[in-house]
Amino acid sequence: MGRYLIRRLLTAIPTLIAISFVIFAILDLAPSDPTGNLPLTIPPEVKQQIRESLGLGQPFHIRYLKWMQQFFITEPLNILEETTGITIGDSESRFRLRSWQTRGPVIDLIVERMPQTLWVVGLAYLVSVIIAIPLGVISAVKQYSWVDQAGTIFSMIGFSVPTFFTGLLAIIIFSVHLGWFPSFYDTTHQVTDWESFVFQIKQIILPVSVLALFQTATLNRFTRSSVLDNLPQDYVRTVRAKGFREYYVILVHVLRNSLIPVVTLVALGIPTIFGGAIITEQIFRINGLGALLIIAIQGSDIPVVQSLTFIFAVLIVLFNLIADVIYGFLDPRIHYN
């Protein structure tokens, strides 16, 4: 296992370097100018000084290397200093990529928005996994029963109806007419007592439900299909012939083998949590990473867009590796030599 992980990590490094180069090159070629929104009365030489202060006066390869420096040197050192309290070199002189809009460090903006995204989108993904896998197994075991039919209808609704429609519908019904939940998410709210905790739960119910409906539909149908593929296999009939109870056959043998493709879907879906649910965050006014990406695109804030895109790519490669490792625990036939 250890040698396999080392090989995969060594393979991931050139992959991420190639991805980073493509991301940086494509977005760097975009027709954008950080001084484009400044008043026309500002002299051209002042605008040029602003561009140079942002590092735009340097050659392409220098800007690319500095952009990579923040991910692999600057920010890891800053995190190490904050967690251990040990000062490593001069932290003030380290290069930090800055946003063209806020002039603040890009990583600080991402870290500031990430808790809101993880709290809402991450919770919705967790709820969808908890609901979808048992529902998919029950639907497969009791094929064509009322449970299976209800799960199919639920999945079709989740597949067919986009999140912007279900989000607006949920706001109209539960916020406007019934008044049960807030119509938008207050990102400045802090939990200090029981009432503030209840309000926090109320304001996350609608966005979490909207996202969980869409994600549960995908995982439910995928789990059901995987279990149905394994139920008629020879090993299942052999286990049943040995006299084991049905719940043992399903949970220990069928489910374990059926989860192998499901793990791939779940693992590759986890990076979308960090990417944020752009549409849902806009509907419920969640000040998360999705909203940050939209603002950066609208304002042509190339450093923020580049950083978010690259972080998303890193997470995909990482969780793909984690999924491969989990395969070995689910299926003893898989050996990593």
Structure description:
The N and C termini lie close together (7 Å). Helix content is 73%, strand content 0%. The chain is mainly α and 337 residues long. The protein has two domains: 2-93, no CATH class; 106-330, MetI-like (MetI-like fold), CATH 1.10.3720. The chain has helices at residues 2-28, 44-53, 60-84, 106-141, 146-160, 163-177, 194-230, 234-241, 246-269, 271-275, 278-283, 289-298, 302-330. The model has no long low-confidence stretch (mean pLDDT 77). The radius of gyration is 24 Å and the shape is globular.
Structure keywords:
mainly alpha, 13 helices, 73% helix, 2 domains, MetI-like fold, 337 residues
Short recap of the structure:
The longest helix is centred in the middle third of the chain and has 37 residues, at 194-230. The protein has two domains: 2-93, no CATH class; 106-330, MetI-like (MetI-like fold, Orthogonal Bundle), CATH 1.10.3720.
